[in-house]
Design goal:
- This protein is an all-alpha fold and 118 residues long.
- It has one domain.
- It is 64% helix and 0% strand.
- It is built from four helices and no strands.
- Helix 1 crosses helix 2 and helix 2 packs parallel to helix 4.
- The longest helix has 31 residues.
- The chain is elongated, with a radius of gyration of 19 Å.
- The chain starts with a helix and ends with a helix.
């Protein structure tokens, strides 16, 4: 490999790294609009797993006819949802990403079971 090829490969890798960081920050911002905290210690994979778990929960809410605009309070407020089980579980300050994803998964599974029972 020539020096020029190595330099181009390095440039491409830096570009990919910037893209990955930009996408991660977009996901963090989107989670923030839903009131979900992302911690500095969370890896990129953690952020993606949290976003996926939030999306699965929201899909279950929609499948049951829920409306997140009605059931989610504005950020920083407690609110009174029409259907409390449709409210996105928020992450506790001492909760790891894995613990939060597991809790979201349980909440999604509970909604899915309710949907089958209905």
């Amino acid at each position: 490999m020539t020096e020029r090829q190595a330099s181009r490969d390095d440039d491409r890798e830096r570009d990919r790294e910037r893209d990955r960081e930009r996408v991660t920050q977009e996901i963090v911002a989107r989670l923030g609009t839903r009131g979900v905290d992302v911690q500095e210690s969370d890896s990129r994979d953690d952020v993606v797993e949290i976003a996926d778990a939030v999306e699965r929960f929201e899909q279950q809410v929609f499948a049951l006819g829920g409306d997140l605009m009605v059931d989610e309070p504005p950020p920083g407020h407690r609110g009174r949802p029409d259907e409390p089980r449709f409210r996105l579980p928020l992450r506790a300050a001492d909760e790891t990403a894995a613990q939060y994803v597991a809790r979201l998964t349980r909440a999604s599974d509970e909604l899915r079971r309710h949907r089958r029972d209905a």
